[in-house]
Amino acid sequence: MNILLEKVKSSIINNWQRKLIIFSICFAVIFMILLINFIIEYKRNNIDTMYAIHGVVMTDGAEYYKKPKESRWFFNRISKLKIGTDSYIVGSETTEDGKQWYKIKSGKKVGYILKENIDYYEIDLESEYALMADVSKFNVIQKDFETKEEFQVFLLKHNFNYAYIRAGGRGYGKDGNFYIDPNFKMFVEACEYLGIPYGFYYIDEALNSEEVDEEVEFMYDFICKNSTSKNILPLVIDIEKYDDNINSRTKDIWEDRKYLATELVDKFLAKGISSIIYTNANMANEYLSEVNTCFWLAYYDRENRIPKQWYTSLEDQEATKNEELMNKMIAWQFTESGAGKEIDYKVDVNLVKNDFFIEYVKKYTKDK
């Protein structure tokens, strides 16, 4: 009887030992599979993006795959990407079916997205004219762009070559206190990420030489603190003509503004900062055309489209007859409310002489 019990015990122990061995083998196999998969995923996702192209997802809900193949199968599909998602383009591939894919890193994942669902900035070096955007806090207040990503989509969607960002300026009224635009950093970050050349502009309201010096120091300090690598365009001095209901400090000194503007241009240059003037085309024609600098002029064509010809073609405009001014004109703000179906955002849009701005890009590249 004892011998029989011993055999039963031995059989039970052996059975448990076999199960333990089988379990251990299975555990080891599963562990090795998971470890190998982790190593593969780690190597696949651990890509250096230092020299990658900074792209932005342009289609909401774009599919993102582990391999360049459209499939909803769990093991291939990574996720759907929201419009505006920052993505580093690290490679490209064309599959046998002729579809073009970008290999991208989005967040911590690396995968593939169809080429038509993502875009990146490429400067147009060939065209005579190019588009330029200018933005400020009012574009956030009006909800044109509430995030950096929304602004990036706007720039890429409409092939803007350049951007100008309001730094701040001198306020209205007797005190003329300085202010900084609260949203400038968001726009700077967008331009810096995409690699779009940009410049700062500020509002001038100086009444005399002492206030000119104050504005020069204000902007010099601002640029020193906030300039990034893509801030390569000249500073813009914004000389506005306001409606009567705005308490402008300078509305009664237009006869003197060409002298003050000349002081600003010269004193910025002495600080190593090149500058141009933005103003209304008619006011430039009447008061400022003798200032020795280039001009960015505002005149709203009201045709609700991107102009096919330069400002000088508008024969009903008195300023176009000012040869000196036209020779200095390098940018035209032709709308403050978009350009109809071509640009369906209610924003300022400008047509610029491409060769003028490309010279700044080339100089930056050469100096670098």
Q: What is the global morphology?
A: elongated
Task: Characterize the main sheet.
Answer: 8 strands, mixed, barrel
The number of distinct structural domains comes to: 2
Radius of gyration: 30 Å
Percent helix, as a range, is 25-40%
The CATH architecture classification of the largest domain is Alpha-Beta Barrel
- Determine the CATH superfamily of the largest domain: Glycosidases
Strand tally, please?
Answer: 16
Structural class: alpha/beta
Describe what you observe in this structure:
With 368 residues, the chain is an alpha/beta fold. The chain folds into 2 domains: 53-120, SH3 Domains (SH3 type barrels, Roll), CATH 2.30.30.40; 129-367, TIM Barrel. The protein has 9 helices and 16 strands. An 8-stranded mixed β-barrel has the order 8-9-11-12-13-14-15-16, surrounded by 6 helices. It has a 5-stranded antiparallel sheet with strand order 6-5-4-1-7. A two-stranded antiparallel sheet has the order 2-3. Helix 5 (209-226) links the parallel strand 11 (198-203) and strand 12. The longest helix has 44 residues, at 2-45. The mean pLDDT is 88.
